[in-house]
Amino acid sequence: MAWGKIPGRTNSMVERLQNQVEKEERDVRILRAVIADGPIGIVKLAERTGLPEHKVRYSLRMLENDEFVEPTPDGAIPADDIEDRLATVNEGLTGLIERLEQVRDAEAPTI
User: Fold this and answer.
1) Which of 7, 24, 78, 97 could form a disulfide with 82 if both were Cys (CB 3.0 to 4.6 A apart)?
2) Does any domain span residue 101?
3) First vs last Cα of the chain: how many Å apart?
4) What is the tally of structural domains in the chain?
């Protein structure tokens, strides 16, 4: 069975996953801009990424909570150990992809 929208129905499980992936993609866009141009503030990040300022602000808060970026008076900068943190994320993504493939390929329960 292929995953995606079921015609005429809402597939809330897939939609929730898609929404979460979109948020994470946005965070990665912001993080890449901070790494490339930091220190950089919210207004410049919004201009550079084309995202609304409120979404940039939210993503920055999430990235700060996860210790990927640090706030400064001049704007956000990447964490000192950003390369190590990104390597860990990439390893985690590989594991997550494998798990999603297992979920996709699992036999559906019979009713």
Assistant:
1) 78
2) no
3) 16
4) 1
> Minimal CA–CA distance to 104: which of 40, 14, 31?
14
Q: What is the DSSP letter of 3?
A: -
CA angle 13, 22, 17 (to 5 degrees): 15
Of the pLDDT bands very low, low, confident and very high (cuts 50, 70, 90), residue 1 is very low
CB 49 within 8 A of CB 29: yes
* Mean pLDDT rounded to a whole number for the chain: 89
Helices (H), the chain: 12-37, 42-49, 53-65, 82-105
CATH number of the domain where residue 22 is located: 1.10.10.10
Task: Please check whether residue 21 lies inside any domain of the structure.
Answer: yes
**Single pTM value for the model:** 0.80
- pLDDT tens digits, 72-92: 999 999 999 999 999 999 999
Distance CA 62, CA 109 (A): 37
In a domain, 28, yes or no: yes
